[in-house]
Amino acid sequence: MWRGQWGEIKVVPNDSLLAALQRYAVIPEEEWLYFLSQISWKSIQKGQYVLHSGQSCEQIYYCEHGLFRMFYENEDGTEHIKSFVTEEQFFTDYRSFLTNTPSFLSIQALEGSRYALFSKQTVEQLYERHICWERFGRRLAESLFIRKSKKERELVELSAEERYRLFLQQHSGLESRIPQYQIAAFLAISPVSLSRIRNKQ
Prior knowledge:
- This protein has helices spanning 16-21, 29-38, 94-99, 120-129, 131-157, 160-170, 180-187, 191-200; strands spanning 2-4, 7-9, 40-44, 49-51, 59-65, 68-73, 79-85, 89-91, 106-109, 113-119.
- It is an alpha+beta fold.
- The chain folds into two domains: 2-154, Jelly Rolls (Sandwich), CATH 2.60.120.10; 158-201.
- Helix 4 (120-129) packs across helix 5 (131-157) and helix 7 packs across helix 8 (191-200).
- 21% of the residues are buried.
């Protein structure tokens, strides 16, 4: 047993997906086994896409290992990276997922990765099965909203140098896995500006 954010939770050893689910809600064994029967696992190579802009996002994803980026692209080809996704994180375009409308962003693997996915239909079935899934869905939505709000505040209130220092603190070890120009796109600065900031460190 261990005590997580929402109380005492039993975790099956070496099962990162169950541990990730139970950060949001206590999942009974019967519900866990049913969930396993409803999800799919996929491997993806570096550079391949989970989702292209213009497609409807109909899945929630879970990164078992690897690295992804979620990004927007302007008509002139300029990229704006919304977030990076690393091991043991859930990710999706939640707006597209909820509204059944085309996504404005793309999701691309930055490394060879393995991930799980489950559909909106599965989510709706889970909500009807057990209250634990309602709790999971609500708390996941809350965490995604908080992450989005923090990023928006940082872009408005923090300087480029402060945003870079915060990136290093919050994403320890990630800098060596990501090209510098993509870190610059995440921080909403130019690669030249990032280079100047790094030279001051």
